[in-house]
Design goal:
The chain has about 350 residues and is α/β, with parallel strands linked by helices. It has two domains: about 1-140 and about 305-335, NAD(P)-binding Rossmann-like Domain (Rossmann fold, 3-Layer(aba) Sandwich), CATH 3.40.50; about 140-300, 2-Layer Sandwich (Dihydrodipicolinate Reductase, domain 2), CATH 3.30.360. The protein has twelve helices and 16 strands. The two termini are about 35 Å apart. Nicotinamide-adenine-dinucleotide (NAD) binds near residues 32, 53 and 111. The site of nicotinamide-adenine-dinucleotide (NAD) has 27 residues, from α1 and β2.
């Protein structure tokens, strides 16, 4: 059993914690919080051992009825792998803690590539992560891009990618971010950071991205165009996506043409937290014209990286060396069958 600790029990951390408890080869040994919040009560109700960074706050937690197991240092010391899911920029500061404890660790996409010098995506570079001490799981948008680009590039060859990201303004539970009524170019400059971030995983891919933020919370929407190395039929592309366990195909018959309807669909399917772990590729948007491929895909920012974190834990532990085996183990444990 791989002993996993979650440092930072927020949007991503709480999902990864639940996913870890479902894996037959992993054990959740603890989660951490810096202050009392609803999530601390959730951890308590799920019976997750809770650790805190500052033990001086122990009495505050305990008088609120939340048992504290010990310090973050103690949690780290008893883990095989730490998943750092603290806010972007904080994780970098934790690196010294993991070095000191000689523990393996993985970070999220809010950190720079240099935090680990290895950026991870299950389907693109799992084997190269085997046995590493540190890896960074790329962001939600980069994960979504890497999945579709790698699928097409490995089978057909991709000359160039252009992608426009329409990004959600905040996560649904976030009350301090916006915009409330604007379309914000983020950044104004082209390219956005997403293209270079894809290249941390797929360095040979030529890609230019641009991005804007809109008043929405559910998911991001990508408009992707790829110049292919040869002419293929649209059906061949769809078949490649159909075979990919991390790509879902949203069909016209469902009537779904928005992130809101897709979220409702996923909720009705009974997924925990209505999480869409796969890319939501709109089947009828997939179109090849000459050597140009076009598609729209919805990316659930809170969810797609969760399954990647589970595979990354396995890769750096060196317990499973075949990416397809890990992906299958992760998906099956979570009862995740990609939407078709
Ligand atoms: P979040 O704010 O929801 O959760 C972070 C948690 O870490 C909070 O519970 C916070 O209290 C805790 N924390 C803060 N400082 C800490 C410290 N020093 N030690 C331990 N815990 C600490 O953030 P999030 O959205 O889950 O983001 C975490 C990381 O995942 C970031 O790198 C982010 O860029 C990345 N990410 C976020 C999303 C998303 O849509 N939310 C998607 C993909 C990747």
């Amino acid at each position: 059993m791989i002993k996993v600790a979650i440092n930072g029990y927020g949007t991503i951390g709480k999902r990864v914690a639940d996913a870890v408890t479902l894996q037959k080869d992993m054990k959740l040994i603890g989660v951490s919080k810096t202050k009392i919040s609803a999530e601390a009560f959730v951890a308590k109700s799920k019976g997750y051992p809770l650790y805190i960074a500052d033990l001086e706050k122990r009495s505050e937690f305990e008088s609120a009825g939340i048992r504290v197991e010990g310090s973050v240092d103690e949690m780290i010391a008893s883990a095989d792998v730490v998943v750092d899911a603290t806010p972007g920029g904080v994780g970098q500061k934790n690196r010294a803690l993991y070095e000191k404890a000689h523990v393996k660790a993985l970070w999220q996409g809010g950190e720079k590539h240099e935090v680990a010098n290895f950026s991870f995506n299950s389907q693109c570079n799992y084997r190269s992560a085997i046995g590493k001490q540190f890896v960074r799981v790329v962001s939600c948008n980069t994960t979504g891009l890497c999945r579709v680009i790698n699928t097409i590039d490995s089978a057909i060859g991709v000359e160039k990618v252009r992608a426009v990201m329409v990004r959600r303004g905040s996560d649904p539970g976030e009350i301090k971010k916006g915009p409330i009524d604007a379309v914000v170019l983020d950044p104004v400059e082209i390219p956005s950071h997403h293209g270079p971030d894809v290249q941390t995983v797929l360095p040979h891919i030529s890609i230019v991205t641009s991005a804007m933020i809109v008043p929405a919370t559910m998911m991001h929407m990508h408009s992707v165009q790829m110049d292919l190395k040869k002419e293929v039929k649209t059906e061949e592309i769809i078949e490649l996506f159909r075979k990919n366990p991390r790509i879902g195909l949203i069909t016209k018959e469902t009537g779904i043409k928005s992130t809101a309807q897709l979220k409702e669909y996923v909720m009705d399917l009974g997924r925990p937290r209505a999480d869409l772990w796969e890319n939501g590729v709109f089947l009828e948007s997939v179109k090849v014209v000459g050597k140009d491929l076009y598609l729209f895909q919805a990316i659930h920012q809170e969810a797609d990286v969760v399954v990647e974190n589970i595979d990354a834990i396995r890769a750096i532990s060196g317990e499973v060396t075949d990416p397809d085996t890990s992906i299958k183990m992760t998906n099956e444990a979570m009862g995740f069958v990609a939407i078709r």
